[in-house]
Write a structure and sequence with these properties.
Blueprint lengths: L4 E3 L13 E5 L6 E2 L4 E5 L4 E4 L1 H7 L8 E3 L2 E5 L14 H7 L4 E2 L3 H9 L4 E5 L5 H13 L7 H14 L7 H11 L1 E4 L11 H28 L2 E3 L5 E6 L2 H11 L7 E5 L6 E2 L1
Parallel strand pairs: 1-11, 2-9, 2-12, 9-10, 12-13
Antiparallel strand pairs: 3-8, 4-5, 4-7, 6-7, 13-14
Helix pairs in contact: 2-4, 4-6, 5-6, 7-8
C-alpha cells in the first residue's frame, strides 16, 4: 500500500495540498472604511450625512428617540432614500470609492485570502448588485492593490487545478473562475434591509456554510484519490463584522450546531477580536 502523506493548514504545501480555511467578510468598516454616507434626517427635515461606523452605533435609536449628531438633532430617516448610495444607483461610485477608502481592520486577512486563492464571501448590508462587488474585487486584483499580489494568486490557483487534475487556463480565466467560486451577498439587493440586516446576513451565511462543506468534501475525495490526508477534516470559516448585533446573532445561530464550522470576530472600533 502506498504510504499516506499527512498535510497541513494554510494555503498550499510544497506537496500541493490545499487548506480548508475559508473567509466571510462584512465590507464597510471591516475590509474597508468607505466614504459612502447614509442620509438621516434632523428635526427640520434636513438630510444629514452619517458614516457607516456612526450608523452602526446609532441605528438602534433611529426613529425611536432624538439624539444629537454633528450639531443636528436626528429624529429618523426616510428608508426609501437614506441608503440610495448603497444601492444599485451607487454601483459605479462604489467601484471608484474602493480605491479612495481607508483600509479596515481585516484588510490584511482579505489580502491573505486572495493571495492564497482561498474561497471567501462578502456578506454586506449594501444593496449593490453582486456583480458590482465582484467587479470591484477583480479590479483590485488586476491592479495589485495595496498588498494584493496577482502573480501569487495565479500561482496558487494553478496549484489548486493541479491538485484537482484540472486543465490549466490563462491567468485572466483563472482569476475569473476563482471569483466565480467566491460568493457575494449584498443582502439588501432587492430587499431594502440595510437598517436591520442581521437576519439576512444569517441566511446568507447558511448558504455559504453549505457551499463550503460541499467544496471541502470534494477536496477530501480528491485527496483520497491521490492517497493524501489533510489534517483539517472539517473546514473553518472566519466571519468578521464591525457591528455587534450582526456578530451576536451570527454566533447565536451557529454555535449550537453539532458540526459548527463558524468562528466569529468583532471589529468594532477598528480592532479585530474573537467573539
Amino acid at each position: 500500500m502506498k504510504k499516506l502523506n499527512v498535510k497541513l493548514v494554510e494555503g498550499f504545501t510544497e506537496h500541493g495540498t490545499p487548506s480548508l480555511k475559508y473567509y466571510a467578510f462584512d465590507w464597510d468598516d471591516n475590509i474597508m472604511v468607505m466614504p459612502t454616507k447614509i442620509m438621516v434626517l434632523d428635526e427640520n427635515g434636513n438630510e444629514v450625512a452619517m458614516s457607516t461606523e456612526d450608523f452602526a452605533e446609532h441605528r438602534v435609536n433611529l426613529g425611536k428617540k432624538p439624539f444629537e449628531y454633528k450639531g443636528h438633532t436626528i429624529v429618523g430617516m426616510d428608508p426609501t432614500t437614506a441608503f440610495r448610495n448603497f444601492r444599485t444607483d451607487g454601483d459605479d461610485q462604489f467601484k471608484v470609492d474602493v480605491f479612495k477608502a481607508k483600509k479596515g481592520p481585516v484588510w490584511n486577512d482579505f489580502v491573505e485570502a486572495i493571495n492564497n486563492g482561498s474561497i471567501f464571501s462578502i456578506i454586506t448590508a449594501r444593496g449593490h448588485s453582486p456583480q458590482t462587488l465582484r467587479d470591484a474585487v477583480y479590479n483590485m486584483i488586476v491592479m495589485n492593490f495595496d498588498g494584493i499580489d496577482r502573480k501569487q494568486l495565479v500561482k496558487n490557483l494553478k496549484k489548486f487545478r493541479t491538485f484537482m487534475d484540472m486543465e490549466n487556463k490563462s491567468d485572466k480565466q483563472l482569476i475569473n473562475d476563482y471569483l466565480d467560486m467566491c460568493k457575494f451577498y449584498p443582502v439588501s439587493h432587492g430587499a431594502s434591509v440595510e437598517a436591520n440586516p442581521e437576519e439576512a446576513k444569517v441566511e446568507a451565511m447558511k448558504e455559504f456554510v453549505s457551499y463550503v462543506k460541499q467544496l471541502s468534501e470534494e477536496l477530501h475525495q480528491q485527496a483520497r484519490i491521490k492517497n493524501l490526508v489533510m489534517n483539517r477534516f472539517l473546514p473553518t470559516i472566519g466571519f468578521s463584522d464591525d457591528d455587534l448585533r450582526n456578530v451576536e446573532l451570527m454566533k447565536k445561530k451557529f454555535e449550537k450546531e453539532p458540526d459548527n464550522i463558524l468562528q466569529t470576530y468583532l471589529t468594532k472600533g477598528g480592532v479585530k477580536k474573537k467573539y
